[in-house]
Amino acid sequence: xxxxxxxxxxxxxxxxxxxxxxxxxxxxxxxxxxxxxxxxxxxxxxxxxxxxxxxxxxxxxxxxxxxxxxxxxxxxxxxxxxxxxxxxxxxxxxxxxxxxxxxxxxxxxxxxxxxxxxxxxxxxxxxxxxxxxxxxxxxxxxxxxxxxxxxxxxxxxxxxxxxxxxxxxxxxxxxxxxxxxxxxxxxxxxxxxxxxxxxxxxxxxxxxxxxxxxxxxxxxxxxxxxxxxxxxxxxxxxxxxxxxxxxxxxxxxxxxxxxxxxxxxxxxxxxxxxxxxxxxxxxxxxxxxxxxxxxxxxxxxxxxxxxxxxxxxxxxxxxxxxxxxxxxxxxxxxxx
Length: 336
Ligand code: UT7
Fold this sequence. Notes:
Blueprint (H helix, E strand, L loop, with lengths): L2 E10 L4 E3 H4 L7 H8 L3 E3 L13 H16 L8 E5 L10 H8 L6 E5 L5 H15 L4 E8 L12 H4 L5 E10 L4 E9 L7 E2 L13 H5 L6 E2 L1 H23 L8 E4 L4 H10 L11 H4 L6 H11 L8 E8 L3 E8 L1
Parallel strand pairs: 4-5, 4-6, 11-12
Antiparallel strand pairs: 1-7, 2-3, 6-7, 8-13, 9-10, 12-13
The protein binds oxa(dethia)-CoA.
């Protein structure tokens, strides 16, 4: 049966770098606190113009990453028959960014859908693309993971636990149907909605007349909320479970896995997962120091960088794994 192979990768991040030191102009924090607790040293935030708007849209960032992936794949862009766009920060409330990128790339009416799975968006998107390809619904799929987090953060002391972690960026992959011994071997997907309130962005909300009220704004409910220590504990456990489950499903052993690309949530989570799984540092990819947590973009950015650093060779076994808001978590096992 045909299944999905990754044939191209790309990424794009804003040029504006915000160091940990830069954050101290808005909140009581320090380079030491942020580095120790998260491993993050800097992140990219999109530039804001004089009109208060970002100088580029999220879809434009995604399109730049997609162009790089299309070039690496060596395909004609019109071969793309489906776009799967993962983001929690779509440019507008609706439609999702999938259609905006269809337009920017002039993709001639390719199907477009958005996945709203926050930090696990890319893992769900890759599983979905593989499923569509196995079902014969699509042959060549563009997956984009992209976020603009910076415009929605509370930069005061009240929001500092979250504000220091998140960054903007986009990553993209092209996956294509193949019958060869490469590509997605297995995926596992999970959720536990009883924890939805532990990491949530509420406003604008359809259950409120007008979707946004002064009262909600006064309460700061337009900003994301995170129960950091609870997320941390669940994440560490679920990352490990998902890795074990996906390799078992794929019939391989952890020693066979050449590279694990975890969602870049926190270096301490990555290190704990690596230690529990018996993985050496070289086998667990990390670029969180440079970009922070870019949510749905973090795995495809890391994947594109790993490819450019020669960290993946044809035939290697790759695991991508993520945990995030929902709670949702999952993993993919891929033969490169
Ligand atoms: O992708 C999934 C999404 N999110 C995550 O994976 C994040 C998971 N959670 C975490 O990474 C960690 O919980 C954090 C990095 C967010 C926080 O680390 P922590 O070790 O759990 O710290 P804490 O929340 O227990 O806070 C310790 C102290 C508190 O002060 P008090 O109450 O002990 O006086 C906080 O107010 O650190 C304070 N604090 C800060 N201090 C300086 C919180 N944020 C900051 C800050 N700078 N930015």
